[in-house]
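Next up, sample data:
>
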Amino acid sequence: MPFYSLSLFYDVRAEKVGPSGGHQMQRCFRQRLVLSTLSVKRVKIPNIRSKDDNLGLRDFEVSFIRLLDKHECNVQRSIGYYLEALLMLAPFVKTPLRAALKGVTNDPTDPSVDLLKVTAIPLMKKFGIDGDGLEIKVLKRGMAPAGGGEVLFTCPVRRSMKPVQLTEPGKIKRIRGTAFSVRVSPQMANRIVDSARSILNKFIPDIYIYTDHMKGASSGKSPGFGLTLVAETVNGTFLGAEVMSTPQGQGDPVLPEDLGRNCAKLLLEEIYRGGCVDSTNQSLALLYMTLGQQDVSKSLLGPLSPYT
């Protein structure tokens, strides 16, 4: 497999096409630009929101294009929005990637850096992307809407994807998690843990949920709290779920007890869906399988997510 620099081959125009063509293209904005970069082919995305009052690209989409060269993330979307694409690109660049991403680490819209750390990283290792250089590290937390978080992502270069046979998820052997709170009482995290365990303890005894309360400069610019859970099977499958508090000034507030119970139920639903890859990382697994050797990888997936 050839190596690629982070030069982007794209041509984004506001031309008129059929009634739905531009809408369909913009829905897959990140995927199209990632695959354009990997395949070294140009892509045109015409008619960007031509029927919307606010024409053209959003600020976070422009920020994503710039991210392929530099790494300040627009706070309209969380770092997870940008990091998902870097996970696809990073193994194939010319030199090992070291990206410091600044912005929102946790919001209700995109996968958090915590979730990608405990689900995407183990998946990457199955494809042979491993070593000390593969890491997602949360240096500072930054909740929506103001952000202020910082994440370090490092990834080694991989010449080719290792073939995988992911066909047997296996039984759940343990559940781990992280309950965090920033610019609120540390008791919020403890209340989240107790409520999540009240549901999960009925199904499995091996549960440990860490609490993470960052203070001062490491706590970002906005208050909030949340929970990330991951279930690990005997065959090394990692299935994740998460719930975040409502961003300050947006919508109805959520109680930590309700948040913990909802996250536990989402994890049980993810387990019920089945598959060897959780719904957050289905598209990453399929891309790696596509870029690997032909007709030698297999993966069992649950119901496909809309993003996949």
In short: Residues 166-273 form a domain with the Dihydrodipicolinate Reductase; domain 2 fold (CATH 3.30.360.20). Residues 1-25 have pLDDT under 50 and may be disordered.
